[in-house]
User: What shape does this take?
Amino acid sequence: MTSLYDEVIYPNTPRPQTHPLRLSALASLHGAPSATFETCRVLEVGCGDGGNLIPMAVTAPNARFVGIDLAARPIAHGQQVIKDLGLTNIRLEARDLCAPDLDLGTFDYLIAHGVYAWTPEPAREALMALAGRALSPEGLAFISYNALPGCRLRQIVRDLLLAEPQIRQGSWTERVVAARAFLERFIALWAADADPFRQAVAEEAKLILKKPDAVIFHDELGEIYEPQYLADVAAAGARAGLGYLCDIQPIPNHAAVSEGLRALSGDDGLRFEQLEDFTILRRFHQSVFQKAEAPRAAGGRDLASLSRLWASAQLRKARPDELEGAGGGFVTPEGHVLETADPALRGLLGALVGAWPAATPLAPHLTAPGIAATVLDMFDNRLLTLQAGPSPFSLTPGERPLASPYARWQAGQGTAELSALTHDTVHIPDPSTLRFLTLLDGAHDRHRIAMAMAGMATPEILAEVEKGLASLARAGFLLG
Assistant: This one.
């Protein structure tokens, strides 16, 4: 059993949006039950080398994780990593999704990222059927896919590349080099024209050029590319006994637009979202399905459920020169200033700043009128994330600091892209920092760490060790 993904390994890293803590929060927000992360069962289809599953397994030793992929080579690599880490709660298998005897057990969460739009129709049907029979009664499925109508532009660029003879032959690297050169020429032609449609195609091509070579090979030069309408994917889920719940990331609420769309869609939540897709020309969906098949009304989210959730946000307190009013303010990573004179909201935002990158419980901050609606609005506008429980890492280094065993393994390999316990990727190119991280195995106190790094444990060196520990803690690498 081989595939092109054996020949050219697709980059595989943690995907925060697929984490059960995030999926469970969405379920709670929409009034659906879900399993607790610490003891849940997770299946990932198209898992590659386990780059998304292994970090979860590290933080939930009492949960069970299974990953399958058609490509045997990345599976073998992931199996070796699991063996090196001594993990017993995860297994990876080279399996064919379409195999008639595929029986993997029952799961609370199913993840299929980047599979649905890149496989033929029988495989898409097999994926939905697997979710329908493998999910527990409270199970949730995360299925992402390139979406219509927004991906029409990308189809134009793919058609251009695949119609060119020199891009269809040669080694995979030669094909990618030829594709890059060909796109550069056409970007110049499109961008030189004032026509907005050609300008839009040029921008699409520029986005493709920013991708790694392996991604361009599989995504842009791959044989199959079938972007989907939300309504069609929801219908496929319904045939398998799944009900569409929501997208992992809602569209920011524009009152005038939403009012008009609700007038057209009535209480049909799915039709409302499909019309939204046409409004913004949505190009990617990360759909969440539940085992229940009950229809959902438009905008049906429960503000009261926020009291059971936790939130995180990457903010900083604004400087006086950044503020226009007399109230306090906070600044996003993009430089947007959030000003408020509301003491309750300032308290919540301050708590988020202090907790970052960990999450803080929302319940103590929701007693004031209007705060729950503001939190939901911030979530819709991607200013904060919601999760169903505390973050699985510590911001306080212990007496013998312990970092994620997976990140320590990666650092030992000299890898600059490390999987943090935030279930995200952190870039650490400095060899000294990577070596420092490998020493955080729970056996070294600060004195021994200083001796290993510098051969001495002077007050100055110990202060640098403390600074390094604080930095790694804030990056989400420490368990204690």
User: Anything to note?
Assistant: The chain has 18 helices and 15 strands. The two ends are 42 Å apart (CA to CA).
